Amino acid sequence: MIEFDHVSKYYGKKQVLKDLNFTIPDGKFVTVIGPSGCGKTTTLRTINRLTDIDQGSVRIDGVNIMDRDKVELRRSIGYVIQQIGLFPNMTVAENISVVPRLLKYDKARCEKIVDDMLAMVHMEEFRDKYPSEMSGGQQQRIGVLRALAASPEIILMDEPFSALDPMTRASLQEEFKNLQQKLNKTIVFVTHDMDEALKLADTIIFMVDGKVVQIASPEEMLDHPATDLVRSFLGKHIRDQAAPTKVEDYMLRNVRKITQNRGVHECAEMMARYSVDTLLVEESRGGKYMGIVSIGDLRKYGRTLKTIEPIVRDTQRTARVGDEAKESFDYLIDSGAGYVVVLDEKDRIAGIVTKTSVARSVAENLWGDEQ
């Protein structure tokens, strides 16, 4: 359990954290969300003492973290950041085992940890690869495994998926939520993205100007936002919008796609170049949508194939340009899927709709192009 008791932090005369009081129970997934500069990353960094507080206390399992050695504390807490931070001169196995080796685990134990971690995400064949040989999504998976390697009870995550493309991001979110539930770890996850908060969290902590303004489950926060800012930031008005809206109003048009007659190697190179784990597939003649191809299928079947066509899967939900957005959005919420593929009148790929793209479009309608 993590307890914040009247925590404040100053940078010079500026108070960036203002009397924070809350508790994070064991085994829960908690997202900290709010506008830029609200103090969410500073709050996260106080837990492992990357930032020391000026007033109050932070306790883990009843022990004041100021009474613990900084290095020992940080080695006992997983930490994942947006920049991934893999060591480029180390293999995947060496990166994953960094903390276990620092903790003086013997070689056999370290190797078993690496094998077990990679097996959890079906990436055993990447054991001896270097970060430069992997896509952004694959690197971030290894970053998460490294944070889990010493079996910490707490993992801190600072916008770890924000630099990834929408499809890879949605896939990683789903994988990580399943992993957290399986391992029962306590996750503190900073984001500025309401989509991530709604999709991942058991509890959302909403911060504004260094203060906590609401702590609630996603459902409670959507139904009973504490302030107008919480209401608009979380997009509650999406539920209340009466005017019909079309999927094309909310879709992302710049998506990565490939034709079905392309080779496996070319497909893999494209995934690596754009740091994606999935590509949309279209016919080489006419451009009709065929389905998706994933990095997992390339790894599993790619060596026996000349082209990607046999491993194209038509399993993704689709919508049509002109369809009401609500149907696609309801599907995304109810199913937990990452995206819906939008097709034009000739069955060609027009774009994709994600919960994030819906939220971003609504925000732009509210505030225009303000930064």
UniProtKB/TrEMBL annotation:
Keywords for the protein's UniProt record, in alphabetical order: ATP-binding, CBS domain, Cell inner membrane, Cell membrane, Membrane, Nucleotide-binding, Repeat, Transport
Q: InterPro entries this protein is in? A: AAA+_ATPase, ABC_transporter-like_ATP-bd, ABC_transporter-like_CS, CBS_dom, CBS_dom_sf, Gly-betaine_transp_ATP-bd, P-loop_NTPase
Catalyzed reactions per annotation: a quaternary ammonium(out) + ATP + H2O = a quaternary ammonium(in) + ADP + phosphate + H(+)
Which Pfam families does this UniProt record tie to the protein?
A: ABC_tran, CBS
Q: What class of enzyme is it?
A: translocase
**Complex formation:** The complex is probably composed of two ATP-binding proteins, two transmembrane proteins and a solute-binding protein.
Name one cellular component (GO) term. Answer: plasma membrane
Organism of origin is: Baileyella intestinalis
**GO biological process, any:** amino acid transport
The name under which this protein is listed is Quaternary amine transport ATP-binding protein
